[in-house]
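Pasting as-is:
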Amino acid sequence: MKKNRIWLSALVLAVCLGALGAGIILANRAEPKENNPYYSIEYELVRVTQVLYENYTVDPETENALRGSQSLNVTVLTGRFKGDVVPVTNYLGPMHEKLAKKGTVLTVTVTSDSREAGYQISIVNYDFTWLLAAMLAIFVAAVVIVGRGKGVMSLIGLAVTIAAVVFFLVPMWLKGYPAIPLTLAVCVLVAVISFTLLGGVTRKTVSAMLGTALCVLTAGAFALVCGRIAGVSGMTMKEAEWLLDESRTLGRMLNVRGLFVSGILISSLGAVMDVAMSIASAIEELRAVDPYLPRERLFRSGMNIGRDMIGTMTNTLILAFAGTSLNLMIIMFAAGMQPYQLFNNDDTIMEIIRAIAGSLGLVLAVPLTAAAASALAAKRRTKS
């Protein structure tokens, strides 16, 4: 039985990873673009070789932010113009406080027009590659040391999740495919791969898969219905105008409306998977203690365990959504909005729908997973 389970788990992983790999290849297949054939913007790295002139002050009215500019000589490190030494002006202000010194590596945009000689460089930010690498190394070390084998599997699952979102979901959306069905497919695929990596194909993981899929579908349907009633969608997001402009640039219709629900599905997936696996694992442990516990007893036990989790988990998810909209709430209160004005604002109602839809999926993960796990784990009592 154990050998068969290993082969089944390997087969499921091979099919899912193969499907994801084929999807990534399809999503990233080059297509002709209708961009301006002369004008181009490239994102490159430069290193400051010399600070020619500095003229900035500290502004106490903006929390001691720097205001002014720097004249720099920079060497292009990547791209078509690698090795060029170019003079650049670095403008400083509260929203762009990127003070450079000799040796500082910066990210820049290189704007060029093939009909004109030369190109223009604009400073965007510092190069954080080293910082990201250090943070990732610390995180990986902590997961491996604490989680050991399970930790390694979770890291592989995390890599698969990132690949599915970054290299499949986003490129496929840019090709014009609808956002919500794509996101649902990615959520189910990520759940199946992650749970199979962690525990193989067993009653416990299948129960968690079923609970996660049902909860994600429920949360998405709830957000879609509430969004239509409230008249909010991806079109009311701050980025909608830029995305519509990009749609015209690419020469195809992008499904901007569906991005609102898609974001809710992705942001709530991790918490739902956590609760689903916890409930399924608890019921499987109860079954191991007494293989003949009836299905009703297993379900009640799962519900009792889940009720203790609901309070803190829903609070965690709602606070996470509230944290992302904290600046918005401060701006609205500073503007003197009344409570009814605050709650009737598009941005506020979108955040509320995000929080409640995600929390609803989290709450429903308890009964749905408990029902699936108890049905799969229950064993008929036989005569001795």
